[in-house]
Amino acid sequence: MTTKLTAHFALEELAATQHRAINNRPPPEVVATLRMTAARMEEVRRLLGDRVISVSSGYRCPELNRAVGGARTSAHLTGHAVDFNCFGYGSAADVCQAVAKSNLAFDQHIEEGSWVHISFDPRTRRQVLTKRADGGYELGLRR
User: Fold this and answer.
1) Domains and CATH numbers, the chain
2) How many CA atoms lie less than 13 Å away from 52 in the CB half-sphere?
3) Residue 143 pLDDT
4) What count of other Cβ atoms lies within 10 Å of the Cβ of residue 52?
5) pLDDT tens-digit readout, 4-52
6) Phi, psi of 3, rounded to the nearest 5 degrees
7) Structure confidence at residue 142 as a pLDDT band (50, 70, 90)
8) Is residue 133 predicted with pLDDT exceeding 80?
9) Contact at 8 Å (CB) between 100 and 139?
10) Distance between CA atoms of 12 and 132, rounded to whole angstroms?
11) I want to staple 38 with a disulfide (CB 3.0 to 4.6 A). Which of 4, 9, 21, 79 is the partner?
């Protein structure tokens, strides 16, 4: 059974993992945050011409976050972050450019190379970053 959070995003896709041994079921307070995050992802979808968004990572419990090498303070831990692609729109760089140029409210937006990270943490810093080849991050986008 699918638990729809919004018209185009379900709880199951925002908590999915390939690490089958890890129970990544979000607690109720995180489900409430994921509902807000899904609503914000609907805004991203509209910005990208209402094209399909493929989510690769949303909520991560602490065990899953460690398993994938996530930051200790990752917004994925609270349900505020989503890693995704919108192949119908273009490359991760194209998506990042569109979001960065928009008036969309976000906390962090990162071009991770082959995917996009966006966080809707309440701080709403509009911080735009690009992952460097050495694994670090630089402020702004490459192009």
Assistant:
1) 11-139 (3.30.1380.10)
2) 4
3) 62
4) 12
5) 999 999 999 999 988 889 999 999 999 999 999 999 999 999 999 999 9
6) -105, 95
7) confident
8) yes
9) no
10) 31
11) 9
Place of tokens 């080849």: 133
Residue whose structure tokens are 């994921």: 34
Average pLDDT over all residues of the chain: 94
Q: What token pair was written down for 91?
A: 């490359």
Q: C-alpha dihedral over 95, 90, 82, 25, to 10 degrees?
A: 170
**Amino acid residing at 57:** S
Chain position carrying tokens 């309440």? 122
Residues 6 or more apart whose CB falls under 8 angstroms from that of 140 comprise 128, 129, 130
- For 56-75, give the secondary structure using H, E and C: EECCCCHHHHHHCCCCCCCH
Which pair of tokens denotes residue 113? 């190379």
∠ at Cα 21 (17, 26), nearest 5°?
A: 50
What DSSP character marks residue 8?
S
